[in-house]
């Protein structure tokens, strides 16, 4: 049962696209630009034009049409699509796609794709990010990152990164890094780095796997040599 409570009288003027949201609750789609929508013990509130707050809903999808800000608090499985900014606090599984700025705090898991700036802290499960500009992940169980430009991961039990630009990993249990640009690893228990432009290690042990040079001419009797992981340890003074 969905109940819409309007805070202001209906207006005859056209509502701007960045001031309205499309909300999907229990497979029912509703367009909202003002007032409060109540359903299943939770609320969806238009705080101000273009700003939406979602509280205590189990399953909800919010589409912003390319702009608009939305916040989720104490929700279950939630998704934000095509919004200007989305924040998630104390939710279960959260997902963001095509959101410019994403902030996640104290959620069970996070899945983010195509974002400009992402900050994720204290996820109990996996924080997965694909295609972000600036990314900061801290104190999560597992960080899985791919196709991001500027990445910093700290205090995670497991960290994986592939096809990233500048990457910094600090105080993680294990790290697996491949095909990145400039990589800096600090105080990790075990890390493997392969196919990266440069690797800097501070107070840790890292296995660096060097790629074989590409041969232009090769005899039919030649066989490829195996690539071994070379342990590298650099201790700062």
TrEMBL record:
Q: What is this protein called?
A: Right handed beta helix domain-containing protein
């Amino acid at each position: 049962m969905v109940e819409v409570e309007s805070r202001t009288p209906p207006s005859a003027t056209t509502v701007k696209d960045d001031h309205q949201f499309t909300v999907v609750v229990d497979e029912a789609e509703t367009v909202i630009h003002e007032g409060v929508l109540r359903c299943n013990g939770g609320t969806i509130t238009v705080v101000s034009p273009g700003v939406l707050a979602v509280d205590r809903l189990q399953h909800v999808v919010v589409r912003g049409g390319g702009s608009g800000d939305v916040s989720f608090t104490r929700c279950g499985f939630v998704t934000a699509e095509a919004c200007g900014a989305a924040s998630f606090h104390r939710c279960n599984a959260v997902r963001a796609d095509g959101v410019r700025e994403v902030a996640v705090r104290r959620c069970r898991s996070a899945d983010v794709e195509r974002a400009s700036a992402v900050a994720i802290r204290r996820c109990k499960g996996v924080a997965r990010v694909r295609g972000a500009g600036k990314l900061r992940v801290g104190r999560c169980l597992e960080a899985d990152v791919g196709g991001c430009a500027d990445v910093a991961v700290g205090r995670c039990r497991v960290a994986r990164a592939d096809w990233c630009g500048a990457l910094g990993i600090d105080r993680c249990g294990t790290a697996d890094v491949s095909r990145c640009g400039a990589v800096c690893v600090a105080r990790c228990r075990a890390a493997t780095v392969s196919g990266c432009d440069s690797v800097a290690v501070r107070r840790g042990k890292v296995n660096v796997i060097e790629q074989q040079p590409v041969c232009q001419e090769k005899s039919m009797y030649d066989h490829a040599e195996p690539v071994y992981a070379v342990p590298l340890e650099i201790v700062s003074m």
